[in-house]
Amino acid sequence: MSTTLAKKETVSRKWYVLDAAGKPLGRTAATAATLLRGKHKADYTPNVDCGDFVIILNAAQAVLTGSKLTKKYYRRHSGWVGGLKEIRYDRLMATKPEFAMTHAVKGMLGKNTTGAAQLRRLRVYAGDEHMHAAQKPEPWVEG
Question: Which CATH number is 101's domain given?
Answer without folding.
Answer: 3.90.1180.10
